[in-house]
Amino acid sequence: MVKITSQVKKTLTNCLCHTQTHRMKIIGFLSQAKHGGGFKSQDVQEGSVKIRLYEGRVSQGPLTQTPVLFKVYPGTRAGGVVADMMAANELNSHMFLQSSSKGMSQHLMLLLGGFETTTGEQWLAFRDYGKSSAADYAKVASDKISKLSSWNSFERGQAMKRRRRFIIILLQGALRGLAYMHDHDRLHQSLGPFSVSLNTISETDAPYLISRLKDLAFSVSVRYSELEDSGPLTEGLWARASAASAFTYLEKRAFGIADDIYEAGLLFAYLAFVPFCEAGVMDGLSLQRLLENTFRLDLEAMREYCIADDRLVNAIEFLDLGNGAGWELLQAMLNADFRKRPTAQAVLNHRFMTGEVL
């Protein structure tokens, strides 16, 4: 079981607040903002644990006025042991990745510090680069699709070009973050549209878009020395590995990386369909069921099905770019045989993901 040791707590507290007084200044700022009616909060669900997000700014010290997103895990009494494990795992994952001698990736959220309250809540503070996720973008984009019908063909064509470019840049950033994690022997294990943070959702701002991976509570180390570790956060992964006949250390590590690539493939599929369809036509769960249950990961058969539905024409045209390069890449990422899936870097080097097809 991963624990937040007193030394880790001390280190994290010092990252954000150089003194106890400074830490109380931050808490005081939060309290004042909350009672002033201007403090925004949001509840989100990660697994079985309800987490609260707060927005704020550092009030003193070298990080003064830095926008911060506080991620608050409930104490053991409210959230159970799993909440503590998730908080410790997310904290330790970020600390490990941010201590790399190769430098920090700009495509991962930056942990500034954290502390534990007297009630046992674990507060993690991240640099706040923006409130939107890839899921938020997809919803806004989908809502706009119906309005495109009133535009002339030239305007619609330009709008689709902007959308395609934005989505490829978004995916490039997410895959770069994932490639960085894999290069450092870390899996994400909860990659999806809600776990990709965006600094903008405006398609005209595509050149300035930076997507960052977040939510590392289920991250798993695949260093050979740690592949024997088991617990609530890893038992599902290793059970799937055993079912796929991955038993040796080398096979388990390869399976874990390929498992992340499969999730990245589902994210790719989500962004290839949802933003190109009118609201209500397609959602993530329905799309996954089509891929896995109806077509058994046969993308050629799925394409034939989609062609018959006029509501999916924009998505088909996107994946058809480069003589079907999108379908080709998606099929590789969702290959039923984990041994045949590409690495994150190979995905980035694919002609569809480089933007060559645009």
From TrEMBL:
It comes from the Eukaryota. Residues 24-353 form the Protein kinase domain. InterPro entries: Kinase-like_dom_sf, Prot_kinase_dom. GO terms for cellular component: chloroplast. PANTHER family: PROTEIN KINASE SUPERFAMILY PROTEIN. This is Protein kinase domain-containing protein. One of its GO terms (molecular function) is ATP binding. SUPFAM superfamilies: Protein kinase-like (PK-like) (SSF56112).
